[in-house]
Amino acid sequence: MASMLDVPADLLPVHQCVSRTLARVEERIASALASDLPPVERLCRHVEKYRGKMIRPTLVALAAMACRPDEAPLDRAVTEAHIVSGAVCEMVHLATLVHDDVLDEADVRRRAATVNSLHGNEAAVILGDYLFSAAYRLCATLDTPDTTLLIGTVGMTLCAGELLQLHNRQNFSLDENTYFEIVDRKTASLIAAACRLGARHAGAGPDAADRFESFGRSLGIAFQIQDDLLDLTGDQAVVGKSLGKDLEKGKLTLPLIHHLASSRPEQRGRTLTLLEATSGPHQRGAAEDALAGALADTGSIDHARRTAERLVAQAKSALAPLPESPARSMLLMMADAVVTRAF
Amino acid sequence: MASMLDVPADLLPVHQCVSRTLARVEERIASALASDLPPVERLCRHVEKYRGKMIRPTLVALAAMACRPDEAPLDRAVTEAHIVSGAVCEMVHLATLVHDDVLDEADVRRRAATVNSLHGNEAAVILGDYLFSAAYRLCATLDTPDTTLLIGTVGMTLCAGELLQLHNRQNFSLDENTYFEIVDRKTASLIAAACRLGARHAGAGPDAADRFESFGRSLGIAFQIQDDLLDLTGDQAVVGKSLGKDLEKGKLTLPLIHHLASSRPEQRGRTLTLLEATSGPHQRGAAEDALAGALADTGSIDHARRTAERLVAQAKSALAPLPESPARSMLLMMADAVVTRAF
């Protein structure tokens, strides 16, 4: 994620420390996934292509540095427990991506063919399980069980969020509260955990750890809303994954929920017809264009954008009481970048 | 599993202690899976119907009692760590069952409709992930990370075994060594871990813990061979799950591997044709009967039975140096039951 930022000179040392941390996290993931069986090894190598912005390990590292602003060199703030936590968060995230692609029948992920499209759903389901197990195993290399306890809880939370989403598929009366409940669980919980682990393993007290968690939670929800927007309005070549999948799988996104709730009955009826057409084989492009027009008419794209911006402001305010530091500045910049990113 | 045994009077106290332990394990699983979300709660309640013989928690309890033969009452040998270990092993096992049913497209599991057949593959994949996370979370409630480390390692091992099996699907030249490699990983590793955890948490030294693990490993492989035999020769109404699935999914089982390796080229060709027919829509029953005949001609069913019996003898000899106790006798009875069971 830090790589998306146009980093000013005074933040370069933090940026470089993040890069060094990410390199260590990558190594740790590779060694945690290593297998003596060539077919397993091959699949693990493939999953490495999914690696994207590494937001979660980046947040672990930045939270650590923000909690210990006086460490020199900066890298001293990043401990073994941070490397493990960052790797674990990324591995859990990768596992959910691999399984999501099975559920979404997606063919492309970060410009690489998905495991399911290349090797079938079976290999993808088992590989996801392998990633989960490797993540928990790595957790258990830490001295205390706290990290495993938190990651286990988050693992359950994010699955519960996915199940709630699945349960509400094609529910065109889904309200915003339930939407936020789903997103909080399935996306924000792991991002919040990454921030909390970064702070906790840097010796932060309960208050500061809560602030970082709260930062991550707001950031995570904003991040998902931006993902929703990109799924509707993004460019597949830029985003690097299959788009329009939310609509196709009957997942209601924030713009659509707002639109359906604020439309008059006739318009609602027309939109539902358009939604059906966007997943059909005919006139799909035309239906998508008409839908985009309808969403614009009710100001629903703007509503989602404003909501994401409000969440970013909330995230930033959670870190306001912390002492100023380059790492804190970088976290605030990352928060802003969530709603301006095009990928 | 103990419920399959015709328990002699002198083993009744052990049997009753196992029953009490299993009741505690069941409660622990239910509380570990509890969710505030009704759709999640519903799926978890459904999975409880999958609960079968509870072999893994039974082994945890019996290993504990066999390591502390002098405890009175017997229940004092079964600690909190045993309840957690038993619950964790069963939950990991349930998670793999839920995912296996997706992979196998199975409709029936222990006489209940599978999650995938009732709620779709998506719910089943996420539910399996939920079960895994809940298992690891429960592990982390123990003071030391050893159990999580072992279960995490076993989780990776069993996925690797499944991937190796998948990689060898339709490989009609699969040799017995690779077959044992697959079975050791995908089935025996968790059963071996249950035995080791039972012993370790009862204060067994490294040698005794190794003996219990080795008992579980041989038992687990024998168990899988018996499963292979039941898939070929069992009665669905008795076994309680879809049969013939191994053949249909191109999984080579021990009788078939032996048959193909010991057949002359013409017979090999005929068998491969029959195998194709068993997964086709026409004359399936006739093809299955002819296949059973071919397997009998090369003595392959007998070969698999004898191999399972040899493994059971190996398992029992691993426990031979331990002091005699009712729990040890029950473990030996369980080992014998593995190859005589019809379900």
What would you note in describing this structure?
The structure is a homodimer of 343-residue chains. Chain A is mostly helical and 343 residues long. Chain A has helices at residues 12-33, 38-47, 55-67, 80-104, 115-139, 146-167, 176-200, 206-233, 236-239, 245-248, 254-262, 265-278, 284-297, 300-319, 326-340; strands spanning 108-109, 112-113. Chain A has a two-stranded antiparallel sheet. In chain A, a hairpin with a 2-residue loop joins strand 1 (108-109) and strand 2 (112-113). In chain A, helix 4 (80-104) packs antiparallel against helix 5 and helix 6 (146-167) runs antiparallel to helix 7 (176-200). The longest helix of chain A has 28 residues, at 206-233.
Mean pLDDT of chain A: 90
Structural class of chain A: mainly alpha
The separation of the N and C termini of chain A measures 10 Å
Number of strands of chain A: 2
Strand fraction band of chain A? under 5%
What does the oligomeric state look like here? homodimer
CATH class of chain A reads Mainly Alpha
The CATH superfamily of chain A is known as Farnesyl Diphosphate Synthase
Overall outline of chain A: globular
User: What would CATH call the architecture of chain A?
Assistant: Orthogonal Bundle
Helix content of chain A: over 70%
- How many domains in all of chain A? 1
